[in-house]
Amino acid sequence: MALDDRTKALLSTFLLLWMKNNELICNQTYVDSSSDSESDFSTDYSDDEVASVEDLSDTEEKLFEEYRSLQEQHKKMEQKARLAQELEAAQNAEIKIETETETNHQLLEEKVVQEGEGGGQGEEDAANASVLQKRSMLLDEEDYDEPLESETKKRRMELL
């Protein structure tokens, strides 16, 4: 996953603040457990140091939330790109099917014309060819157009 410059900057700032926060925590001096002291940690921190740690924690949380938001936006953009590719593929398939259908109809018409010119049962052959052509057109419409149109409409709606 490629990160843009803003995300990299936020991530590096987040890591620096996290390391600084951990450094301040690690620098705390622990009281020896064998001593009679009631507290586990020494409390010799100045108000500025405590405020600094609190500010770092708040900044860390804000940066983390912004980083999550950027991740979600990136996922949404990838999903939209994938849907756009699928829509383009469906449209290309629809165009291909339409082209094939037109070619089939032209070939059928040419066959009807050739059989009609050949003599014999010209009128009967032409009538049969006409019926076959109508059946072919109905089957083409039922098999290809409706599912692709509805699928195309669904994909367009998803992109919006």
TrEMBL record:
Residues 100-114 have a biased composition (Basic and acidic residues). Residues 35-57, 139-149 have a biased composition (Acidic residues). Residues 32-57, 100-160 are annotated as: Disordered. It comes from the Eukaryota. This is Uncharacterized protein. It comes from Basidiobolus meristosporus CBS 931.73. The lineage of its organism: Eukaryota, Fungi, Fungi incertae sedis, Zoopagomycota, Entomophthoromycotina.
